[in-house]
Specification:
Blueprint (H helix, E strand, L loop, with lengths): L2 E5 L5 H10 L4 E5 L2 H10 L4 E8 L3 E2 L1 H9 L3 E9 L3 E4 L10 E4 L1 H6 L1 H6 L3 E4 L3 H10 L5 E5 L1 H7 L2 E4 L9 E8 L9 E8 L6 H10 L5 E8 L7 E8 L5 H13 L2 E9 L6 E2 L2 E2 L6
Parallel strand pairs: 1-2, 1-3, 7-8, 7-9
Antiparallel strand pairs: 3-4, 3-11, 5-11, 6-9, 6-10, 12-14, 12-15, 13-14, 16-17
Helix pairs in contact: 6-7, 8-9
């Protein structure tokens, strides 16, 4: 059985993403921190790790990108998870009894309107599923938790309301990391990080290597270089596998113009979530 590490307690949205990608026949390995997920894969405690890298509402998870730069593990896949927040409480609790709501700060922010409209007090917690686990162990009559339906099932809590997130298009993208590279496939995506010389036109020239070959970029984001203040690295995703001839040529050109380049991995691209009239229609991420 494949072992897959994730950050959080059982019932976390990362664990939900694992089941969506690998199926039910998988052994999940909870870790306290993102660093522990990398360590689990590097030491062989898990074959893969699954880590959130960006949210459609809140943006990128910078800590994970920094760790990808620091470690030599490869991105081997991606997952789009439609994050559905549930309000849950101890059995016997009515929604009229609720005065406080506990969850991870990001989950509280994603459900801010729902909480404010009811005049509840938000209580930041270290983890969505951790909040559910702690409430199940120590019930409080006026306390509810925001977490996944999976967390409610695991810890025996009652779901009082579903889909309480303020934005219906609350999608989180995850990376699957592991040892070694994935072979070329029909629909691939590549992630890398690079830095440019500190001179006019340097970034333009680097990106031109992709533009002149008709390679589509799907993400470009800057992050501060930790060893050089006011200098930046750029995280870039493009369509295609690095072993494809056009992609190889673009990377050779990039290497000749950039200050440094690190390939994070080429992997099968997950289907993009699609929306129609405000509703999710791509069943692969539901």
């Amino acid at each position: 059985m494949i072992r897959v590490a994730f950050q959080g307690e059982h019932g976390a949205f990362s664990e939900e993403a694992i089941y969506q990608h690998f199926g039910e026949e998988v052994s999940t390995v909870p870790c306290r921190t993102f660093e522990e997920v990398f360590a689990a894969v590097e030491t062989g405690s898990a074959e893969h790790g699954v880590l959130p890298v960006e949210n459609a509402v809140a943006g990128s998870i910078n800590k994970v990108y920094d760790l990808l730069l620091d470690h030599d593990l490869q991105v081997q896949g991606e997952i789009y998870l439609h994050v559905r927040h549930c309000l849950m409480a101890a059995p016997g609790t009515r929604i009229e009894d609720i005065r406080r709501v506990r969850s991870h700060p990001q989950a509280l922010a994603q459900c801010e309107d729902f909480i404010l409209q009811r005049g509840w007090h938000p209580v930041p917690w270290y983890d969505t599923a951790g909040g559910a686990k702690d409430l199940a162990a120590h019930p409080e009559p006026d306390m509810a938790v925001i977490a996944s339906r999976l967390a409610a099932q695991i810890y025996g809590l009652v779901v009082l309301a579903e889909n309480i997130q303020d934005m219906r298009w609350n999608i989180t993208r995850f990376f699957v990391i592991g040892q070694g590279e994935t072979p070329p496939c029909e629909r691939a995506k590549t992630s890398l990080v690079f830095a440019v010389p500190h001179r006019p036109g340097a970034l333009y020239e680097c990106l031109g290597e992709f533009a002149q070959r008709g390679i589509n970029l799907t993400k470009l984001e800057s992050r501060p270089r930790r060893n050089r203040p006011w200098h930046y690295v750029f995280y870039l995703d493009f369509e295609g596998h690095w072993q494809e001839p056009l992609c190889q040529a673009a990377l050779v050109g990039l290497l000749s113009k950039a200050a440094f380049v690190k390939l994070l991995g080429s992997y099968p691209a997950a289907p993009q979530p699609e929306w129609q009239n405000g509703s999710l229609i791509d069943q692969s991420v539901t």
